[in-house]
Design brief:
The complex is a heterodimer of chains A (264) and B (267). With 264 residues, chain A is an all-alpha fold. Helices cover 73% and strands 0% of the residues of chain A. Chain A has 12 helices and no strands. In chain A, 36% of the residues are buried. By secondary structure, chain B is an all-alpha fold. Chain B is 72% helix and 1% strand. Chain B is built from 11 helices and 2 strands, in the order ααββααααααααα. Classes of the chains: A mainly alpha (264), B mainly alpha (267).
Chain lengths: 264, 267
């Protein structure tokens, strides 16, 4: 009964978001075009790069396109569901408006992470999905029904890690009271998400696949999809994802304890 | 002139007030840029076995990626949106009654940012030269760096005019944040921040050289690295001049029409 509230609540968020999107029509249109430019830039980057090599990070051009497409879909999911909310979170913490969400009979983290749904980004999710279908169509020889069945789970997991990484850099606001948390660091670090994991070596690779698992957002899903099934890789993905989720939930609770309410 | 020097001094103080954030963002962006480029191009060079790709050795490419964000900071020292913010907040009203141009005020903020970026460039390039050395095949000298900085400052005018035109859409649109981000994405790829323009297909390079974007990043970096020939200059100045002229006209038209729509109360 308790959990049944959440889909209903999310339905309300969606209704509110669709109404709001019609208020800012030009912004709605600009955001769609902005994301399309972002997609084009990412695809063009790899196409230009592949003029100078036939393999990058173990992938040929069509395989790298699958990686890019997975990244774009995960990014579109993130932009649709989480980005606006995570931008607002430091202000809530600093101004004390988080109080309103703490007293509600639902999970505070659920509420503050999902209350704003971006309709324009949801439209871009359709475009990003189209790019993914195009990319997958060029790699039919390695795709099996089992791998395709696994794809939605990989995308959901990638989106979860993307969200967890982003909120990791916002949570310090509870202590630092800075205007944007460490979101600048997050944006800088996200450059590593946009490149195949096999490029990175040594300590950096260990960090990107465990401590700050940015490579698990798009690279690992692409590797699981394109290569022969690797149980070790799948276990690594599940284990690190669950561990990272646990760490972030613990940090969130720890942060809430430091929250000084409206006076902070 | 005294007024503008005073405004410049205030803007410089504003920048150093948040110096931790300023330096953190700068160092972080630079490091991430260079580290990602290092691993990416290591893989490409290892795979192809080439000693140079489109005239760039591996060492020269890494130097390019060190210089690209530095030159970009000189040409694009502030994020877009400052003019739009004044329109949205109603803050533009106070500038309308000042006995000085609103656009000059904003341009001085841009110059202050560029001045700080030149200091950063000197520190980083000096440090890089001492720590790692400049590759022998790159004819970088004090004078080529000075020339590159000069180009980046000229490109700064172009960038400011692009930003002002985009921001003035705020007279009509409810938000222009996404337009600024869009320009940033385009600048990153066509400006040569993600990849040197020499890596582009030849026909695309020819087209891109007629847009304003390469002159914001790639051209100043190439000048610093001593890769600009005298023969390249006429087209560069022609294209920059044409774009500056067109953008000036566009900005004037936007201001003329937009200021009539401005209510002064903000949203």
């Amino acid at each position: 009964m308790g959990l049944a509230r959440y889909p209903r609540l999310y339905g309300s968020f969606l209704r509110f978001a669709f109404g709001k999107s019609l208020e800012f029509r030009m912004d709605f249109f600009f955001r769609i075009v902005m994301d399309l430019v972002f997609y084009a830039v990412n695809i063009a980057f790899f196409q230009i790069l592949f003029l100078h090599t036939d393999v990058l990070g173990g992938w040929n051009e069509t395989e790298a396109l699958v990686f890019v497409a997975i990244f774009l879909v995960v990014d579109a999911i993130h932009m649709t569901m989480f980005t606006n909310n995570l931008w607002a979170l430091p202000f809530m913490i600093n101004e004390g408006s988080l109080d309103y969400y703490l007293v509600r009979p639902v999970s505070t983290l659920f509420f503050v992470s999902l209350r704003e749904f971006s309709v324009s980004s949801a439209i871009n999710l359709i475009f990003a999905s189209g790019i993914m279908v195009w990319a997958l169509a060029q790699n039919l020889q390695v795709l099996t029904p089992a791998k395709l069945a696994m794809l939605p789970l990989l995308l959901l997991n990638g989106s979860m890690i993307h969200y967890l990484t982003a909120i990791l850099f916002v949570i310090p606001t509870f202590w630092t009271h800075s205007g944007k948390g460490f979101s600048t660091v997050y944006h800088i670090m996200s450059r590593f998400t946009e490149r195949p994991d096999a490029l990175f070596r040594g300590t950096l690779r260990v960090i990107l696949t465990t401590v700050l698992p940015l490579s698990l957002i798009a690279s690992f899903p692409a590797r699981l999809l394109l290569g022969p099934f690797d149980p070790g890789l799948a276990l690594h993905l599940v284990g690190v994802s669950l561990g990272f989720l646990g760490v972030i939930l613990a940090l969130w609770r720890f942060g809430l304890r430091a929250y000084a309410s409206a006076s902070s | 002139m005294r007024l503008w020097l005073h405004v410049l001094s205030l803007e410089l103080r504003k920048i150093v007030t948040y110096r931790v954030d300023f330096w953190f963002r700068f160092v972080g962006t630079l490091l991430a840029n260079v580290v990602v480029a290092y691993f990416l191009w290591s893989a490409v060079f290892a795979r192809t076995g080439a000693t140079a790709i489109r005239g760039f050795t591996f060492e020269a490419l890494i130097l390019y990626y060190v210089l690209a964000p530095l030159a970009e900071n000189v040409a694009r020292p502030v994020d877009g949106g400052a003019i739009a913010e004044e329109i949205y907040s109603g803050g533009l009203t106070k500038f309308l009654v000042y006995p000085a141009s609103f656009f000059r005020f904003k341009y001085v903020a841009h110059v202050a940012g560029a001045a700080m970026a030149i200091v950063q460039l000197a520190f980083v390039l000096g440090g890089y030269a001492l720590w790692h050395g400049i590759p022998a095949e790159v004819p970088l000298t004090f004078w080529t760096v000075a020339l590159g900085v000069g180009f980046a400052l000229c490109a700064g005018i172009l960038n400011y005019l692009i930003g002002a035109a985009v921001d003035q859409v705020a007279f009509w649109a409810d938000r222009v944040w996404s337009l600024n981000v869009m320009v940033m994405f385009i600048t990153r790829i066509l400006g040569g921040s993600l990849l040197p323009l020499a890596m582009f297909p030849e026909n695309l390079q020819t087209v891109v050289k007629w847009t304003p974007f390469p002159y914001l990043i790639a051209f100043p970096v190439q000048a610093m690295m001593g890769q600009i020939r005298l023969a390249d200059l006429p087209q560069a100045f022609l294209v920059m001049g044409l774009w500056c002229g067109a953008l000036l006209l566009a900005n004037r038209a936007l201001w003329k029409a937009g200021s009539l729509k401005y209510t002064g109360v903000g949203i």
